[in-house]
Design goal:
about 200 residues; alpha+beta; 5 strands; Alpha-Beta Plaits; single chain; 6 helices
């Protein structure tokens, strides 16, 4: 039997594909609903997310020198990210309100490509996870950096916002594949010729 016919035969006898995952935020009629977590166990849940604000090198110099007209860019973005994580349930309709144990927002300055990498860590003891809280913290921190520096650079872009890791709960641990800072920035910034 040739390899090609062997391949076709094994394809016909392969295990049936597993059914696609169901979406827990939809009821049997496809209507949006808040997930009932009353039967779940309280466990430690943690999530980390990241994003990148790409900017012109001159804008990055303003940030580093602390000479932005609106004040301390990163301190303001950190507070904004923390506040956003705590209020995620008010922004994302089907999120549960959670008493968060920890929210940390950290920044890494990048010169090549020019910009700021934002990372958020959120932790809670609860019946549901904090992925949305971590993603919201990163998103709002990135938006705040843009707001604080837009007078100098309206061409800044935000990208690479993604979940890095989550742990706890029934679904266990998730870790994203590594992404180079340059790839994250490419998602966020305009081509230098367009500036």
């Amino acid at each position: 039997m040739s390899k090609e016919s062997e391949s076709k035969t094994s394809a016909r006898h392969a295990e049936p594909a597993s059914p696609p995952p169901t979406l827990s935020h939809l009821n049997e009629r496809g209507e949006a609903r808040m997930v009932d977590v009353s039967e779940k166990a309280v466990t430690t849940r943690e999530a980390r997310a990241e994003g990148f604000v790409a900017m012109a090198p001159a804008t990055l110099a303003i940030l580093e020198a602390g000479s932005a007209k609106k004040g301390d860019v990163l301190a303001t973005a950190r507070i904004a990210g923390i506040m956003a994580a705590k209020r995620t349930h008010e922004l994302i309709p089907l999120c549960h309100p959670l008493a968060l144990s920890k929210v940390a927002v950290d920044f890494t300055i990048s010169r090549a490509p020019a910009g700021v990498r934002v990372e958020a860590l959120v932790r809670v003891e609860a019946k549901t996870g904090v992925e949305m809280e971590a993603l919201t913290a990163v998103s709002v921190a990135c938006l705040t950096i843009y707001d604080m520096l837009k007078a100098a650079d309206r061409a800044m872009t935000i990208g690479g916002v993604r979940l890095l890791e989550k742990s706890g709960g029934r679904s266990g641990t998730y870790r994203a594949a590594p992404m180079a800072l340059a790839a994250m920035a490419a998602d966020a910034r305009l081509n230098e010729e367009q500036r």
